[in-house]
Specification:
The chain has 205 residues and is α/β, with parallel strands linked by helices. 33% of the residues lie in helices and 19% in strands. It is built from six helices and eight strands; from the N terminus they run βαβαβαβαββββαα. The protein has helices spanning 17-28, 63-73, 91-98, 120-132, 159-178, 180-183; strands spanning 3-8, 35-40, 77-83, 107-115, 135-137, 142-145, 150-151, 154-155. The strands form two sheets. Strands 1, 2, 3, 4, 5 and 6 form a six-stranded parallel sheet that branches. A two-stranded antiparallel sheet has the order 7-8. The longest helix is centred in the last third of the chain and has 20 residues, at 159-178. The radius of gyration is 16 Å and the shape is globular. The two termini are 24 Å apart.
Length: 205
C-alpha cells in the first residue's frame, strides 16, 4: 500500500498548521487507498541548512539531516500543509525541503494552503520548487480562507472543501502509483505492519 506523508509546514508558536493537517488526516482516514502519516517538521529541530555538501550529492553529515532524510524517504507521495507568509510559503518549510534531494524524487505532491487568500501564492511558490526536485505536483489543490474556513480559531471547512481535498488526494494517490516504476519495486500490501487500511496517525501534534 502507498505511504503518503502529510507534512505540517509551519513551526510558528500558535500556528494553525496542526489543526489543518489533522483535518486532512480525518478526511484521508475515510478513504482506504493509502496509509497517511503526519510529519511535523517541528519535531526534527532542523536549523538553517547547515550541510557542507549540496543535498543533490546525498552526503548528509548531520544527525538531524539523516533523521529527516530517512523519514521522507519512506513515503511515496506527500500533502504539504502550508501557511502563506508574504506571498510565499513558510521559511521553515522551504528550509526543510532544501535539506534533501533524492528523497523527494519521482514522487507526487498535493497542497493544502491557508491564509487570507487561501494560501494560493504559497502553493504557487511551492510548485516551482517541486519541479526542480522531480516531484509531480498535482493540479487539484485546497485553499482555506482564514475568514470563511475557520471558526473560533479552529478549522471548520464546508463540504465543498472536503470535496476539493478528496479530489486532490485522488490525484496524489494516482500519480504516486504511476511513478512507482521510477522509485523501485512496490512492497506487498501486507508490508504495512498491520496498519489499518484507512490510514494512521504517527504524530500526536
Amino acid at each position: 500500500m502507498l505511504n503518503i506523508g502529510v507534512i505540517v509546514g509551519s513551526t510558528r508558536p500558535g500556528r494553525k498548521a496542526p489543526a489543518v493537517a489533522n483535518w486532512v488526516m480525518d478526511v484521508a482516514g475515510m478513504r482506504g487507498d493509502a496509509i497517511y502519516e503526519l510529519v511535523d517538521i517541528a519535531d526534527f529541530d532542523l536549523p538553517l541548512l547547515d550541510e557542507p555538501v549540496p543535498p543533490s550529492q546525498g552526503q548528509y553529515t548531520k544527525p538531524h539531516t539523516q533523521a529527516w532524510a530517512a523519514r521522507i524517504a519512506s513515503f511515496d507521495g506527500f500533502v504539504f500543509v502550508t501557511p502563506e507568509y508574504n506571498h510565499g510559503t513558510s521559511g521553515a518549510l522551504k528550509n526543510a525541503i532544501d535539506f534533501l534531494y533524492k528523497e523527494w524524487n519521482n514522487k507526487a505532491a498535493g497542497f493544502v494552503g491557508y491564509g487570507s487568500v487561501g494560501g494560493a501564492r504559497a502553493i504557487e511558490s511551492l510548485r516551482l520548487v517541486m519541479g526542480e526536485l522531480m516531484v509531480a505536483d498535482v493540479r487539484a489543490q485546497v485553499m482555506l480562507s482564514l475568514f470563511t474556513d475557520f471558526a473560533d480559531g479552529k478549522v471548520n471547512p464546508p463540504e465543498r472543501q472536503v470535496e476539493a481535498l478528496d479530489a486532490m488526494l485522488d490525484q496524489v494517490v494516482a500519480w504516486s502509483r504511476a511513478l512507482q516504476p521510477l522509485r523501485g519495486p512496490t512492497p506487498p500490501d501486507d508490508a504495512a505492519d498491520g496498519a489499518p487500511p484507512h490510514g494512521r496517525r504517527v504524530s500526536s501534534m
